[in-house]
Amino acid sequence: MAALAPITHFDVCNGLVIEKPQAEQLVAQFGSPLMVLDCDLIRTQYRALQSALPNVDLHYALKPLPHPAVVTTLLAEGAYFDLATNGEVDLVQSVGVPSERTIQTHPIKRDIDISHALAYGCNVFVVDNLNEVEKFEKYKDQVELLVRVSFPNPEVLADLSKKFGCLPEDAVTLIQHAFELGIRIKGLSFHVGSQTKSGVKYADAISKCHHIMMAVINAGLPALSTLDIGGGFPVKYTPEVPNIADFCAPIRDALAKLPETVRVIAEPGRFIVATAVTNIASVMGQAVRGGKTWYYLDDGLYGSFSGLMFDEAKYQIDSALTTGERFMSVLAGPTCDSIDVIREEIMLPKLENGDLIISTMMGAYTSCTATDFNFFKRATTVVLNETAVNELIVSA
Ligand SMILES: *Cc1c(COP(=O)(O)O)cnc(C)c1O
Question: GO CC annotation: what is one (predicted)?
Fold first, then answer.
């Protein structure tokens, strides 16, 4: 633990901004590359989404950044948690999250996954087909299930409805089967896809789920009490992404039409964490090739920038040097693989070896998909403001 000069300013839309002296101080203290996680921005994002979706219980989906500091920060904010794997169960358990604040939402599970979550005390699970429902027959006195419904969204980067979810027209039959097996179905869930472009996608899915809920009652089955509207809330990688309050306006309108007895929950991942992490990497070496200077960093596509392959997110990448003439340059990662190039074309000042590159908006789907290919060590995470707002404590 060490005291650190205050981060001078940050811009919620564009992520944590770290100035050159501060970046140099962090690298001197903790080495390079770094992922700097500011828990104050986790709080800011959580509160922004909560005020955009009042009366919706936000379950942070651990998948984009499964870090204990994020979990403890959100727990103190009153958040709930969306778990998908045994590792995520172990993480929330290790930091003391009460199990009744969690749900397990992986649509396809082994028996060991079900029993592991149950042993912790998490007893809400997601299913999307009869084979999966039948896995719960032996646990029927302990569990309540959500049925995941598929609403395809071909325009998003990750259309999760391709891989998971039952067709809306098959939902009632599936619920009927579960009922016959004596298994309680608590409600419906969906995920419209990550970094979704318009809140209207959710509004459409909510109204279709409302129809399914009415059809369930008409079929003489017990009424559903929960609607889980999933994750997918977008962050401003680019300026045209709307702010979250505006984005959620159609969602609020659609939710207002549901019966008041329905508890609405959501599973935000990216929105909560994307802005909170800034990457600091160092120039290892340089060469002029084809008239352009190539700068080789100590972090790259097989490390913190893996999202450039898996996620296509648009990080904001710049030199810590803000002055000086700029030249068209290439920014490459450290490994010996030719695809390990972060930017083919980027305007940068003339850099020396050891100079720093600072990239913002790197909290979601970055370090969690990093590898240590070629034995290049993954970036060290440095946590700021973990315990309380404005407390200047760092823990590596
Ligand atoms: C990945 C995932 C999330 C989080 O999605 P974001 O786009 O990061 O908000 C939520 N729920 C489920 C089931 C997921 O698989």
Answer: cytoplasm
Same domain? 298 vs 218: no
Q: Is the pTM of this model over 0.90?
A: yes
The pLDDT tens digits for 195-249 are 999 999 999 999 999 999 999 999 999 999 999 999 999 999 998 999 999 999 9
Same domain, 256 and 280: no
Q: 49 CA to middle of ligand 1, Å?
A: 15
Q: Please identify which of the residues 13, 122, 209, 336 carries the catalytic annotation.
A: 336
* pLDDT at residue 128 is higher than 70: yes
Query: Among residues 244, 268, 292, which one ends one of the domains?
Result: 268
Q: Checking DSSP bridges between strand 277-289 and strand 356-360, what pairing results, if any?
A: antiparallel
Active site residue 209: no
- Beta-strand pair 34-38/277-289: antiparallel
**Closest ligand 1 atom to the C-alpha of 194?**
7
Q: How far is the CA of 160 from the centre of ligand 1 (A)?
A: 9
Burial 157-177 (b: 16+ CB within 10 A, else e): ebbbbeebbbebebbbebbee
Which atom number of ligand 1 is nearest to the Cα of residue 107?
13
Q: Which two tokens stand for residue 65?
A: 């950044």
Angle, vertex CA 52, rays to CA 48 and CA 53, nearest 5: 120
Distance CA 124, CA 148 (A): 13
Choose the residue to mutate in 46, 160, 163 for probing ligand 1, maximizing ligand atoms within 8 Å of C-beta: 160
Say how far apart CA 371 and CA 56 lie, in whole Å. 35
Closest ligand 1 atom to residue 270 Cα is 8
Residue nearest ligand 1's atom 3 by CA? 231
Task: Please tell me whether residues 144 and 119 are part of one structural domain.
Answer: yes
Mutation to probe ligand 1, out of 45, 58, 63, 312 (largest number of atoms < 8 A from CB): 63
Residues 6+ apart with CB under 8 A from 342: 297, 300, 301, 305, 308, 317, 331, 332, 333
Contacts of 307 (CB under 8 A, 6+ apart): 313, 315, 362, 364, 365, 366, 369
pLDDT tier, 13 (very low <50, low <70, confident <90, very high otherwise): low
For residue 194, the cross-strand partners are: 158
Domain of 236, in residue numbers = 66-268
